[in-house]
Structure formats: structure tokens, C-alpha cells
Design goal:
Elements (H helix, E strand, L loop, with lengths): L1 E10 L5 E11 L5 E6 L16 E4 L4 E5 L1 E7 L14 H14 L4 H17 L2 E7 L4 H14 L2 E5 L1 E2 L14 H17 L2 H6 L4 E7 L7 H14 L2 E6 L3 H10 L6 H7 L7 E5 L5 H10 L2 E4 L1 H6 L7 H6 L4 E3 L11 H19 L7 H15 L17 E5 L27 H11 L5 E6 L2 E5 L6
Helix pairs in contact: 2-3, 3-4, 4-6, 12-13
Bound molecules: guanine and fe (iii) ion.
């Protein structure tokens, strides 16, 4: 049992952050939060019965506990291409940068290198839950799932399906049967990592059915993946309405469908367990359909700007009652950090506000909600993660502010540390605000999933 003491911050609702300057959170052996004390309630003598011998983990110096981030959309195999996109847009970016790289993961040892680096990286940025696209390769995808299981990161891992001739011959499913058989094989493998947990819906790592996007798949393939979802109950992830050229292509390829969203709906892929990335240019009818089906949206602002896809209308999506989370979308996006994605979401909303008016602006509170509770709801875990409540899992990060990183120049024997008293005068709310705009992974000094320490930096102890 562990008691986490010190300030903590989490979202109460889309508009409201709770900032507790003096807190204590008791987490049991199973990683579940059993009590939360605030302010005057905090004290050794009031510790509940049975917690006398619990270990204490305190925030040292300035800082606070914050829920772990949920990345609702990213591509692990694209990690080596981070920052490379030139002036391409989606369709030529896929052919120029993405397919050649992804196809190279036919080499399992190459996949192991790339995936190990990426999972450690996302953890170091405080991502406790991550929705990963793999590639079409089953051994590589299964390795990714095993890695998340071993490192203790909550994850949804998908073997990518792409059987249409949009894909180059060197990187394409051999046919529908192959796509479905390989998907099934990967689902079974991932569930075998924790058979009991999978049965109860409590596994840390879960499979996710992954038709890349409509132009990559034939109708038959998507319909069979819809059937695979009904058979296995696995989640589904895909892309929707990211780029105007892509939307035109979908119209040409699927003339019998009334819209992009309708293509997925006809295949049985629009479900409560479906995560749709981007959703930049949805029509009113599509939004209504997605809302009715209960499908979720992953907002990927960095990627949408990098590939000049557009500024997704997040305020409108939220107002239509659709559940929204954030996605880094490596390597359309250039950062594996959800904190960076929070800033990008704020920025993009401000570009929308320049045309649509101030209501389009997202606040710091709102993006932090999307990064935690919103993402949790996207994967259906809103009762388990995303906030600090009794009965929820301890998926959390310790944020430290003003950790001074020394510098050293030639001839100096040790690190020279700067003066430390420049910061620390801010109100608690200002500290959070400054973390969102100027923080990075160095501020995330420790990360837990279900009570298990899954990442720490030297500065955690210092
Ligand atoms: N649409 C289809 N594949 C991809 C991908 O890998 N990244 C992004 N951003 N969009 C896609
Ligand atoms: Fe993507």
C-alpha cells in the first residue's frame, strides 16, 4: 500500500480543474485508489485503519500529481520519421514517407528497436494509456503488445489492415482473407498475454481492430472487420475526414455511400468502441451519425497542422455531444508528448477563433480534460482512469516544476546550477498554466500505471 502526499491536480469536468495544494491519496496493492484526503483532512493521525505501515511517496519541492495522459491515436512504426514531412499532404506523405518506413518492419529486429525506443519515450512523457497502430506485420505488432505488457503501459495495439491498391505492392495485404486472418491471430495473441484479465475486460493491453482508413481497404475487407468486431468485441480504430483530397477519393471509391462516415457505418465499423482519428471536415450529418453510433474522436492538432489537413472544429464536436480525446499521431504529428498536443490543441482552436469567434478557443482546463478524462472515455475507461477518485486506478505522473538542470562548460569540473528562486511565486493555478505552456518530459519525473512505477527519472529522488 502506498500513500501519495502533496499537491494534486485533476479535471472535475471539461471546464473545471480541481487543484488541491495539500493532499493524500491512498492506493492499495491492486493499484486502486482507496481514500483521498484534502487540506485539513491530511494528517498521519487520521490515517485510515490498516494504512499505518503504508509507504509514503511525497512530491519534493514544487510540483503535483497529475493523472497519466491518454494518447488516443499514434503510429509506433513511424517513430523514426518524427519531424519528417516536408511540404507533403496526407496522400503523398503516405506514399513518400510512411509506407516505405512501415514496410521495413517486416524485419522483427528492426521493429523491436523502433518499438522499444517509442514505448519508453511515450512513458517518459507521462502517457499511461496509448492507442497504437502497428503495421501489417503480425510478429512486429505482437512484439509491440508484449512490450507494453512487460513495461506496464496500458495500451490498445492494432495490426493494420490495408488490402486495396492504394498501397504499394511491396506493402499491402495479400487479400481480404489474409487481412482478417492476421488480425484475428494478433487479437488472440494479445489476449493470451493476460487471459483472465482479457475475459474480465481488465487487461492492461488490449487488441484493437485497425482498418487503416477507407481508401486503404475494400468494402469487403471493412465488412469482414466489422464482423470480426462483433465476434471478438475488440475495439476499432481508423482515420476519418482528415484531408480534402482524401475525402474526394473516398467519394470516388465508394460511390454508393452517402458520406465518409457512412462507408464505415455500412461496414459495421461505427460502434461505441470505435476511435476515429482527425475528423477535421465532417458534415453535420456525419457528426449526427457518429454521435448516434456512440463512436469517439481522437483530435490530432499537431498532425493536422503539419500535413496542412485543417483545423478541426473541436468546440463543435464537443457541442454535438461526441466524446473527444487527444492523439499525437506520430509521425504526422511531430511530438510523442500529449502535453505538447495540449498546446497544439489550444493553438489550433485559436486559429479557428480568428474566424469563428472567441467561443472556439479551448482553455487550459479543457485541453487537460481532453488529455485525461476525455481520452479515458474514448477508450471506455472513464470509470477507471483519467482522474483521482476512490475506486479508480492509480494511473498518474509526478510533475516537478523548476527542477534546475545544471550546465557545464569546458574546464568546469561539475555542473553549475542556476539560481532557483526565479519561480515558485505563482498561484497554484498559474503553476499549472505555466506547466502546460512551457513544460516538457523533464517535468514528468515518475509515472505509475495501476499503482506500478513504470518510469522514473533521476530527478524523482533528487
Ligand atoms: N491516414 C491513413 N494512414 C494514415 C497515417 O498513417 N497517418 C495519418 N495521419 N493519416 C493516415
Ligand atoms: Fe494517424
Amino acid at each position: 500500500k502506498t500513500i501519495y502526499t502533496g499537491p494534486f491536480v485533476h479535471s472535475r469536468s471539461l471546464k473545471e480543474l480541481e487543484i488541491v495544494e495539500k493532499g493524500a491519496i491512498g492506493v492499495d496493492e491492486a493499484g486502486v485508489i482507496r481514500f483521498i484526503e484534502r487540506g485539513d483532512e491530511v494528517g498521519e493521525e487520521k490515517r485510515p485503519e490498516g494504512w499505518e505501515d503504508a509507504e509514503t511517496v511525497a512530491v519534493k519541492g514544487e510540483g503535483f500529481f497529475f493523472p497519466g495522459f491518454v494518447d488516443t491515436h499514434t503510429h509506433a512504426p513511424q517513430h523514426p520519421n518524427t519531424g519528417l514531412f516536408g511540404k507533403t499532404t496526407l496522400l503523398d506523405w503516405l506514399q513518400t514517407y510512411t509506407f516505405p518506413l512501415e514496410s521495413s518492419l517486416s524485419s522483427l529486429s528492426r521493429a523491436q528497436h523502433i518499438y522499444t525506443n517509442f514505448v519508453l519515450r511515450t512513458l517518459s512523457h507521462g502517457t499511461t494509456t496509448c492507442c497504437y497502430y502497428g503495421t501489417i506485420h503480425v510478429p512486429a505488432t505482437n512484439f509491440l503488445a508484449k512490450l507494453c505488457h512487460e513495461r506496464g503501459q496500458r495500451a490498445y495495439v492494432g495490426r493494420v489492415c490495408m488490402n486495396s491498391d492504394l498501397s504499394p505492392e511491396y506493402y499491402r495485404d495479400a487479400g481480404v482473407d489474409q487481412a482478417v486472418k492476421d488480425s484475428r491471430e494478433s487479437i488472440e495473441y494479445i489476449r493470451s498475454l493476460d487471459p483472465e484479465g482479457s475475459k474480465k475486460g481488465e487487461a492492461i493491453v488490449n487488441p484493437i481492430i485497425t482498418p487503416r482508413f477507407a481508401p486503404s481497404c475494400t468494402s469487403d475487407c471493412m465488412a469482414q472487420l466489422g464482423a470480426l468486431h462483433r465476434e471478438t468485441g475488440a475495439h476499432i480504430q481508423t482515420h476519418i475526414s482528415e484531408n480534402k483530397g482524401e475525402i474526394e477519393l473516398v467519394k470516388e471509391l465508394f460511390p454508393d455511400s452517402t458520406s465518409y462516415a457512412n462507408v464505415y457505418d455500412q461496414a459495421g465499423l461505427l460502434t461505441e468502441k470505435t476511435i476515429l482519428a482527425h475528423a477535421v471536415h465532417l458534415t453535420e450529418e456525419e457528426k449526427a451519425l457518429i454521435k448516434e453510433r456512440g463512436s469517439k474522436i481522437s483530435h490530432c492538432p499537431a498532425s493536422n497542422t503539419a500535413l496542412t489537413s485543417g483545423c478541426a472544429p473541436v468546440r463543435e464536436l464537443l457541442e454535438s455531444g461526441i466524446i473527444v480525446g487527444l492523439g499525437t499521431d506520430i509521425s504526422g504529428g511531430f511530438s510523442p508528448s500529449i502535453l505538447e498536443e495540449c498546446r497544439q490543441a489550444i493553438w489550433v482552436s485559436r486559429f479557428r477563433a480568428m474566424n469563428d469567434g472567441d467561443d472556439a478557443k479551448l482553455s487550459t482546463e479543457e485541453v487537460l480534460y481532453l488529455a485525461t478524462r476525455g481520452g479515458a472515455a474514448v477508450v471506455g475507461l472513464e470509470d477507471h482512469i483519467g482522474g483521482f477518485e476512490v475506486g479508480m486506478d492509480w494511473d498518474a505522473q509526478m510533475v516537478r516544476l523548476g527542477v534546475v538542470h545544471g550546465g557545464q562548460k569546458e574546464g568546469e569540473e561539475k555542473l553549475v546550477e542556476g539560481p532557483v528562486d526565479v519561480f515558485g511565486w505563482e498561484s497554484a493555478a498559474e503553476k499549472v498554466e505555466k506547466w502546460v505552456y512551457s513544460g516538457d518530459d523533464r517535468n514528468t519525473v515518475a509515472v505509475w500505471v495501476k499503482g506500478r512505477l513504470v518510469h522514473r527519472k533521476d530527478s524523482y529522488e533528487a
